[in-house]
Amino acid sequence: MIAALLVAGGVAVFVVCGAQGGEAVGDVVADPAGSAAPSHRSVPGASGAPGAVDAARSALPAADPIWIERVAAESGIPERALSAYATAALTLAEEQPGCRIGWNMLAGIGQVESEHGSINGSRLLASGETTPRIIGVPLDGSQFLATPDTDDGTIDGDTEWDRAVGPMQFIPSTWAMFGRDGNGDGRIEIDQIDDAALSAATLLCDPGLDLTAGEHWIAALDGYNPSVSYNNEVADAAERYAEFG
Questions:
Q1: Which of 41, 44, 123, 173 has its CA 20 to 30 A from that of 179?
Q2: Which long-range contacts (CB under 8 A, 24 or more apart) does 51-56 make?
Q3: What are the φ and ψ backbone dihedral angles of 12, each rounded to 5 degrees?
Q4: Where are the domains of the chain?
């Protein structure tokens, strides 16, 4: 199934393939009731001066706002979230053209992980921040794979076990590896949809595979969450969204 993403100055075409297979270890259920302070860090070498931030933002690729408005209305994806997914896909198209990640793959993950930042009463602000914060259950082995604390509770507020955090549900150790600044503000914030979407795209493209090949799509998503049911849920959502793009 082919999904065309209109962009300023041209057309980018992405392909989504259905997913199957993988070893089931479970998914994370988001819970916005966490009390940890929002986590962010500065981008190394970045300046917080307005001019530097403006320059960084102007360098970001951008999806056609008319496309965003239409697809959001037809698909039910909030415009703010859709813009983040599309921008992340376009960024990776420039950085790693061989990956060919689709916006709809990111949207599928965003739907399954947090209902695009709206799970359990949370919502996306115009800034892209989620409020209340979305923090998953402790990964203590009772429901999902046991993951002892890796961040001293700095990100997720739990000093015993890791928890998945933010609209794309990153655990702290994975965020430390792949967290990126997706909106050019010089900060890397796990609760901010642009940062989270670009970080997810970077993780998915990290193996260097062409995601238009079905087995590569499955392998990349398996690296995000190695669960058969999760893989299939994301694939179903991604294929549905592709119809609108």
A1: 123
A2: 52/186, 53/184, 53/185, 53/186, 56/181, 56/184, 56/185, 56/186
A3: -110, 130
A4: 2-242
Residues 130-150 as b or e (16 or more Cβ within 10 Å = b): beebbbbbbbbeeebeebebb
Encoded tokens for 219: 């392998």
Distance between CA atoms of 101 and 245, rounded to whole angstroms?
A: 14
pLDDT in tens, 60-105: 788 899 999 999 999 999 999 999 999 999 999 999 999 999 999 9
Q: Which of 184, 200, 201 is nearest to 95 (CA)?
A: 201
The total of other beta-carbon atoms located within 10 Å of residue 156's CB is 29
Specify the pTM: 0.81
Query: Which residues in the chain belong to E strands, given as ranges?
Result: 2-7, 10-15, 30-31, 40-42, 123-124, 130-131, 135-136, 187-189
Exposure of 94 by Cβ count < 10 A (0-12 exposed, 13-18 middle, 19+ buried)? Answer: exposed
